[in-house]
Request: fold
Amino acid sequence: MSLTAHATNAPVSPAEKSAPHIALLLPLKSTALGQAAEAVRQGFFAAAGTQPQALPVRVYAASSESLDNIIWLYRQAIANGARAVVGPLTRNGVAALADYPDIAVPTLALNMADALDADKLYFFGLPAEAEARQVARLAAQEKLRTAIIISNGTPLSRRLTQAFAEEWKALGGTIISELLYNDDPTALASLPTAMGNMIFLAADAEKARLIRPYLDSALPVYATSQLFNGNTDTLTNYDLKDVNFVDMPWLLQSDHPAVMIYPRANPPLTPDMERLYALGIDAYRLLQVMLSNHLRTALPLDGVTGRISLHDDHHFQRVAIPAIFKQGLGLTPEEAAALAAAQAAALAATRAAAASGVPPAAVPAQ
Reply:
């Protein structure tokens, strides 16, 4: 493993003179995780760049997030003068750190884990299960009471199904059917469309766009950010017409006050990597709140990943932005309403022109 100092790009020697800093522990040298770790690193430094008077950041880059590596890196960071630590990134790495009894400084792990005694250890991540639970709450708020779950059998799909089902039942809802989509659309055409029914689509965008055309338009369909590949993927978005989903302001609201502050990655990243870039931004912001001891007054935080609050068990939880696919775009409810109003106005103008005998092209633009 290697340690890298951001300021000089030179290796951080174990014998280097101790100096106050923020330690960022990431698997940058991992073949499987390096790209994701790099996206987080970029986002973290994008946020740090807006705070020139804050503690400097040193990156501790590992080849893996095994128990031995994580604890070694953590201890090395503390020995080098770290006043705060961010990382590791994976569930296994975070679980290893959560079992370490000597968390000496404010530490923000970038995934979720159970911690029985987490005085200085906090957790923040982008668990897909949290989005599935939020979708269940959104559907319940719309007075929907009976759900049909369609999954595609992947491990992530099963996790989404379980999280949605648990939350849905806790809210008093009923699950009337669970379908495993195996590329045969026959079963999709006869789903019950009674008032109050809805569909939770626990699948990725590739599968979801094959499933959506076979679903009755009378059935409200909900999903997580798995379906959203950004507003440049218009063909997929058209195929997912009227599907409700949730995602973060970083991808949905370019005019969001927090989003506008931070630079975008250059070159641009894929949507999945953009989400990790945004995770890095909000991780830095949350750490500053932790260091200032303002957890009770500075939260909830209007983050680029969503609205973030702190639960009693030291887990930061975010609420994503509701959205819907309309005309090849993922739109917030406000944007969808504005689009519908514009379309209604255009239709009214066309009808008025037809009634008056004036060609529509001659109607002045509004």
